[in-house]
Amino acid sequence: MDDHRITAIIFDLGNVLIDFDHKIAAKKICQFCNKSEQEIFDLFFDSELTTLFEEGKIPPLAFFFKVKEILNLKLGYNEFVSIWNEIFFLTDKNRLVYSLARSLKENYKTALLSNINILHFGYLVKNFPVFDAFHHLITSFEVGFIKPHPMIYKKTLELLEVPAHNVFYTDDRVELIEQAREFGFRSFPFQGVDKLKSDFLSVGVELN
């Protein structure tokens, strides 16, 4: 028996199973404050505040009030949440990845590993029926760490109950899979469905 065979498969969520664009929200939000779309985008996508929210370190209302303060935002909480959440959409690529994940679930442990905040996750679970393809849903806001922090990979392995070398992992952001590779995961950057299938076959994953 091959001790290095793949027994668990981990997928990233954003821009793999569901596409998103923070610029959609930034464009709408700029109508209610005096900041530029780029300034709002930077705050939403890559800031210490967003990191804390994705780590579950601050609750949604506190996040909103901080955004409101930083942007001098003339918008109520419920209106903000609607704009904040409505940045997601499905593409043919996403649907193909979902179909692939569903088929792999029959013979492998499948997991979703995502840097995501509680508002986005709740919205996606309610509106995007892709989560049934996975045995485990691992989110940064529940774990308390975001990728590429080693602890999120450690906790993922504990949940899957498999050694790192038995795990196949794909993510669209190369910098996020590098740490996982150092951790021992068989990690591959997501570059489309055809490349993903090729990567699966290269490590012996059987496709239906």
How is the secondary structure organized here?
Elements: E1 8-11, E2 19-20, H1 22-29, H2 37-45, H3 48-54, H4 60-71, H5 77-85, E3 88-89, H6 92-104, E4 109-114, H7 118-127, E5 136-139, H8 140-143, H9 150-160, E6 167-171, H10 174-183, E7 186-189, H11 193-202
Parallel strand pairs: 1-4, 1-6, 4-5, 6-7
Antiparallel strand pairs: 2-3
Give a verbal description of the structure.
- With 208 residues, the chain is α/β, with parallel strands linked by helices.
- It folds into two domains: 125 residues, Rossmann fold, CATH 3.40.50; 65 residues, Putative phosphatase, domain 2 (DNA polymerase, domain 1, Orthogonal Bundle).
- It is built from eleven helices and seven strands.
- Helix 1 crosses helix 2 and helix 1 packs antiparallel against helix 5.
- The radius of gyration is 18 Å and the shape is elongated.
- It starts with 7 loop residues before the first strand and ends in a 6-residue tail after the last helix.
- The model has no long low-confidence stretch (mean pLDDT 95).
The strand order across the widest sheet is 5-4-1-6-7
- What radius of gyration results from the CA coordinates? 18 Å
Question: What do we call the CATH homologous superfamily of the largest domain?
Answer: HAD superfamily/HAD-like
Quickly count the domains: 2
Distance between the termini: 21 Å
